[in-house]
Amino acid sequence: MAAAPEPGEPAKGKTFKLLGILDVENIPCARDSVLYGSLGSVVAGLGHFLLTSRIRRSCDVGVGGFILVTLGCWFHCRYNYAKLRIQERMAREGIKNKILYESTHLDPQRKPANGNGGSGVTSSTENPATTH
């Protein structure tokens, strides 16, 4: 028996494509947007039908509800996804810089050894006998 793939990993088998173009399994936010859009369509169409009893107009409202809710969820999810990617990239760069600059003179967390900036060289105006 083969193990089931994780939700974030692409499946090796046949994927489900909506209308032949939208791969809802591998595109982030596509699945949730379509599901919320279909729920919005049912709620909008059924609510309009219960209020007015007009079948054709209720179907139109249902299609409009699907489009509006799907696009609203899509843009909201993609915005949050992009924000998360930016934060992850910043964290990766910070970790890389931490590893790169650790224990060097460029490390911002490292304190200088003496009071003159850590150069170890005394200037001509300082008295070497009084400095340490």
Automatic annotation (TrEMBL):
Residues 102-132 are annotated as: Disordered. One of its GO terms (biological process) is mitochondrial respiratory chain complex IV assembly. The keyword Cytoplasm does not apply. This is Cytochrome c oxidase assembly protein COX20, mitochondrial. Pfam families: Cox20. GO terms for cellular component: mitochondrial inner membrane. The keyword Mitochondrion applies. It is found in: Mitochondrion inner membrane. InterPro entries: Cox20 (IPR022533). Its main location: mitochondrion. The gene is LOC115505258. Keywords: Membrane, Mitochondrion, Mitochondrion inner membrane, Transmembrane, Transmembrane helix. It comes from Lynx canadensis. Belongs to the COX20 family.
